[in-house]
Sequence to fold (186 residues):
Amino acid sequence: MLKWCFAFNIHRMADSSSSQPPRATSLSSNTLQQEQNKHLVRQFFEALDKHDTERMDQLVSGTNYSLHFSGMPPLDWNANKREFLDPFNKAFPDLTRNIVDIVAEGDKVAVSVNVTGTYKGEFQGIPATGKQVSFTAMDILTIIEGKITEEWATADMMGLMQQIGAIPPRSASNSSSTNSDDTAKV
Fold:
């Protein structure tokens, strides 16, 4: 009986003159769009690694792209991209973003990135050391009509600043400070 019901419903869906395509077709279309969105994000990160702002401009909305980087007010990309990118590019000219994980749903793409490079130029007043740096970043990008319109980004800036010597690294003794004075008395 179950086989007959399943077969009947499949046959009925195939014969339907409804203007709505079967769900499997719309899933395929959504999957294709999500794969295209992920490809667009990969291209954006490749252009970022190459310092190719011209290519980045082709991938983002020319009128409606905003970057929200943790700890900063929203950035108007068209007016301020060089102001934002130049300090990083000068301090870490070989900065590379390796996409560790990428997930798409609807018009959003979430990406986890491992960022590596060499500290070759001054950054925020800290002289270059020539040391290799590595930190993680997470981004959520919105793609509308084949263009990136919004990006929410966060990066392990504390870890980066520790690696370049701007702040001292956290020591093991600081992370578990328990002494008898901290113990509650009953």
